[in-house]
């Protein structure tokens, strides 16, 4: 095999691998908005990737929080007071105020629970025996 043939084959392999990586990255990247819901007693949500000037809120079957306007960066922070009981089916909804209810959609949300208690490993690491004060 001549040197130029090996160079061509290596170049094709590198370009093919790079193209595959680009195609895989483009396939996994989505422009859909996302939300992360935090808390148990007082619920908050951070929405990102939503269209600016849309309005969003945290809602459930029997209650809803105040509407928040999405900023120019596509994000908004929402809060729901402590009077929600133990509602587990929370969702984040957004709508375009110019179009009204027809534009209402549910934002894909992940729920992250944190009740303020450290995990057992962190409790051990924060013990004064290990130098924490």
Key attributes of the depicted protein:
133 residues; alpha+beta; seven-stranded mixed β-sheet; 2 helices; 27% strand
Structure characterization notes:
With 133 residues, the protein is an alpha+beta fold. 24% of the residues lie in helices and 27% in strands. The protein is built from 2 helices and 7 strands, in the order H-E-E-E-E-E-E-E-H. The chain has a 7-stranded mixed beta sheet, with no helix packed on it. A hairpin with an 8-residue loop joins strand 3 and strand 4 (68-69). It is flat and about 75 Å long. The mean pLDDT is 77.
Class by SSE composition: alpha+beta
How would you describe the shape?
Answer: flat
β content, as a range? 25-35%
Report the uncertain regions: none
Tally of DSSP β-strands: 7
Helix content: 10-25%
Strand order in space, largest sheet? 4-3-6-7-1-2-5
Number of helices: 2
Question: For the report, how would you describe the main beta sheet?
Answer: 7 strands, mixed
N-to-C span? 69 Å
The run of helices and strands is HEEEEEEEH
Q: Round the Cα radius of gyration to an integer and report it.
A: 24 Å
What is the mean pLDDT? Answer: 77
Secondary structure topology:
Elements: H1 3-28, E1 34-38, E2 43-48, E3 55-59, E4 68-69, E5 76-80, E6 91-95, E7 105-112, H2 120-125
Parallel strand pairs: 1-7
Antiparallel strand pairs: 1-2, 2-5, 3-4, 3-6, 6-7
């Amino acid at each position: 095999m001549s040197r130029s043939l090996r160079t061509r084959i290596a170049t094709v392999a590198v370009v093919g691998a790079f193209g595959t990586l680009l195609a895989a990255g483009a396939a996994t990247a989505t422009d859909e908005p996302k939300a992360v819901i935090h808390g148990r007693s007082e619920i908050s949500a951070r929405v990102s990737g939503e269209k600016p000037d849309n309005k969003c809120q945290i809602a459930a079957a029997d209650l809803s929080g105040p509407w928040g306007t999405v900023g120019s960066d596509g994000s908004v922070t929402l809060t729901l007071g402590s009077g929600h009981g133990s509602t587990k089916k929370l969702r984040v909804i957004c709508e375009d105020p110019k179009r009204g209810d027809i534009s209402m959609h549910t934002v894909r949300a992940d729920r992250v629970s944190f009740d303020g208690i450290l995990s057992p490993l962190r409790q051990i690491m924060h013990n004064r025996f290990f130098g924490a004060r």
